[in-house]
Specification:
By secondary structure, the chain is mostly helical. 60% of the residues lie in helices and 5% in strands. It is a multi-pass membrane protein.
Length: 702
């Protein structure tokens, strides 16, 4: 008998251990799957940011329209965030996250699809230079157009080609794909964090979240590497003979293989979704739910009796809930500290998002760096600097046990230092390129007051040139000309990229003593002084990013302390909505619209409409780009000072030391910042990202 009981106990023990192991394995599998999804969402976000300039050129659209495409991610996110936050915890969370990853991957692939339907990219729509192999042509006058094959097609053919060329509305698919990616990304953070909070062992959730977000940093690393690699590849790689392409990655018309990045990130997202569909809804039911289940079992017999009463009370509860929501919202909006904090973080984040969206374009246009070089440099700078700054800031706050006001002051101090370093960017603006017909007269001897309708010079007035043509050549006098014809060139030799033009009359009149008045394809490179400024810019970027990240980690903690405890989740959710709507969507649009104002020469689409910008006024571009970012940050700093003054009065004499739990929240926020891929990189205003830490994630976790 005793032996029989012993065997039963042993069997029960083994069964219990198996269940425990199964539940443990289920939770660990969820963590592993969620880690891959974090990598996938960060990868997709970085790829979009790095590709925005390539997309602008490929689809022949303005910077403001490219900014709208970039903001469509936030539009998609806002469409479903309420549904996910409210219903997500009541449904099968792993499957919901899996569906989100699947949608996110589908969105990325949809973004890449237009490449396969648009036909080949034509970087020169007006003319094509086709010199014969090693030929040299000598013409009595600069009738260089005799060696140019003008593609003047009939209106009917042009109209039919509009749907396939980059000037059409094919960019709408990119817009919808990015919006779909935003919809799919929504459940990953909120439901993942709430799932970990529910089923992790007590005290372990912080460790799991820290590990999760640290692993998620792999996404930006992969993104920067792939972005740099694909930017070197020609957009139609695999479809055209690359030896026939005469432009280089430094040409303003160059478009890299932007679509490859979206295909890779899309396939990775879809693959990361698979494990979630095989995970249980509740791997290890928490104690709270056990008690609830027991109570429901005991009360089950009374359900039928109280059903009528419940139906009557339900309407009252809904009315009470709606009324309570508006009362809570009113309480938030009448809280001066909260309103000020929302405004100052909106200004900071708008500065960051606008700056980061166009930082790749800025480095290309200002310093003559190719997209590949800009992507690689930002990747090398970003990750170690941000990581060091975030952990250094957390260490200082914990080491000195700063009060709430002390933390705010520390953040303000580092923001001011970062702001002062940003002012150094202004002297690093390079002079505009010397371009005959835009910044100089065509003879290259005098500057012009305006780039609009610069008259022809005696050196090219008889050449019968097409002034709308954009086929830049660099004269051996260091001046860029809009085309070989406008440079007055009369002969040429070589093939494709190595084509050289000779006897260029507009180059001749600039005072060269030798008789070699030649020009070669492509814009002239930046001078040595501008190159030195670029290296200084990179160094300041590192320092600026370090200070920004060091002090910019406290917004979660500040939000939960300046509102009533029962309003914390609503405060964070409303803050996130304002930031995403007015910052994530609008900032890229108005930054892009102002940048468009600095364009000196636009391309022409196959439909005859204005396309993408070919060249900007470097000085005006720098002043607008840096000036707008600086103005937003300065306004935020002024509000920050007022905010601290008011907060100091309110909390005077109170114990405002950050508790261990609050510091834990801040640590998790720091790690979430490191992982977040959609707006991730230091630029002018890097500290502004600190409050856009997926607030809805934390609200859902509450």
């Amino acid at each position: 008998m005793d032996q029989h009981q012993h065997l039963n106990k042993t069997a029960e023990s083994e069964s219990s251990e198996k269940k425990k192991t199964r539940r443990c394995n289920g939770f660990k599998m969820f963590l592993a799957a969620l880690s891959f999804s974090y990598i996938a969402r960060a990868l997709g976000g970085i790829i979009m940011k790095m590709s925005i300039t390539q997309i602008e050129r490929r689809f022949d659209i303005s910077s403001s329209l490219a900014g709208l495409i970039d903001g469509s991610f936030e539009i998609g996110n806002l469409l479903v965030i309420v549904f996910v936050s409210y219903f997500g915890s009541k449904l099968h969370r792993p499957k919901l996250i899996g569906i989100g990853c699947l949608i996110m991957g589908t969105g990325s692939i949809l973004t890449a699809l237009p490449h396969f339907f648009m036909g080949y990219y034509r970087y020169s729509k007006e003319t094509h230079i086709n010199p014969s192999e090693n030929s040299t042509s000598s013409l009595s006058t600069c009738l260089i157009n005799q060696t140019l094959s003008f593609n003047r097609t009939s209106p009917e053919i042009v109209e039919k080609g509009c749907l396939k060329e980059s000037g059409s509305h094919m960019w709408m698919y990119v817009f919808m794909g990015n919006m779909l990616r935003g919809i799919g990304e929504t459940p990953i953070g909120p439901l993942g964090i709430s799932y970990i909070d529910d089923f992790a062992k007590e005290g372990h959730s912080s460790l799991y979240l820290g590990s999760l977000n640290a692993i998620g940093m792999i996404g930006p690393v992969i993104g920067f590497i792939l972005g740099s690699l694909f930017a070197k590849m020609y957009v139609d790689i695999g479809y055209v003979d690359l030896s026939t392409i005469r432009i280089t990655p430094k040409d303003s018309r160059w478009v890299g293989a932007w679509w490859l990045g979206f295909l890779v990130s899309g396939l990775f997202s879809i693959t990361s979704s698979i494990p979630f569909f095989f995970l249980p809804q509740n791997p290890n039911k928490p104690q709270k739910e056990r008690k609830v289940s027991l109570s429901l079992h005991v009360l089950k017999t009374n359900d039928e009796r109280s059903q009528t009463a419940n139906l009557t009370n339900r309407g009252k509860k809904v009315t009470k809930t709606v009324t309570g929501f508006f009362q809570s919202l009113k309480s938030l909006l009448t809280n001066p500290l909260y309103v000020m904090f929302v405004l100052l973080t909106l200004l900071q984040i708008s500065s960051f998002i606008g700056s980061f969206t166009y930082i790749f374009k800025y480095m290309e246009q200002q310093y003559g760096q190719s997209a590949s070089q800009a992507n690689f440099l930002l990747g090398v700078i970003t990750i170690p600097t941000i990581a060091t700054g975030m952990f250094l800031g957390g260490y200082i706050i914990k080491k000195f046990k700063l009060s709430l006001v002390g933390i705010a002051k520390f953040s303000l101090l580092t923001s001011i230092i970062s702001f002062l370093f940003q002012l150094i960017y202004f002297p690093l603006i390079c002079e505009s390129k010397s371009v005959a017909g835009l910044t100089l007269t065509y003879d290259g001897n005098n500057s012009v007051a305006s780039h609009i309708d610069v008259p022809l010079s005696y050196c090219n007035s008889e050449c019968n040139c097409d002034e709308s043509q954009w086929e830049p050549v660099c004269g051996n006098n260091g001046i860029t000309y809009l085309s070989p014809c406008l440079a007055g060139c009369k002969s040429l030799s070589g093939i494709k990229k190595s084509t050289v033009f000779y006897n260029c009359s507009c180059v001749e009149v600039t005072g060269l003593r030798n008789r070699n008045y030649s020009a070669h394809l492509g814009e002239c490179p930046r001078d040595d002084a501008c190159t030195r400024k670029f290296y200084i810019y990179v160094a300041i970027q590192v320092i600026n990013s370090l200070f920004s990240a060091t002090g910019g980690t406290v917004c979660i903690l500040l939000i939960v302390k300046i509102v009533q405890p029962e309003l914390k989740a609503l405060a964070m959710g409303f803050h996130s909505m304002v930031i995403r709507t007015l910052g994530g969507i609008l900032a890229p649009i108005y930054f892009g619209a102002l940048i468009d104002k600095t364009c000196m020469r636009w391309s022409t689409t196959s439909c005859g409409a204005r396309g993408a910008c070919r060249i900007y006024n470097s000085v005006f571009f720098g002043r607008v780009y840096l000036g707008l970012s600086t103005a937003l940050r300065f306004s935020a700093l002024v509000l920050y000072i007022v905010f601290i003054f008011v907060m100091k009065k309110k909390f005077q004499g109170k114990d405002t030391k950050a508790s261990d739990n609050e510091r834990k929240v801040m640590d998790e926020a720091n790690l979430e910042f490191l992982n977040n891929g959609e707006h991730f990189v230091p630029s002018a205003g890097a500290d502004s990202k600190t409050c856009n830490l997926d607030m809805q994630d934390n609200a859902a976790a509450k």
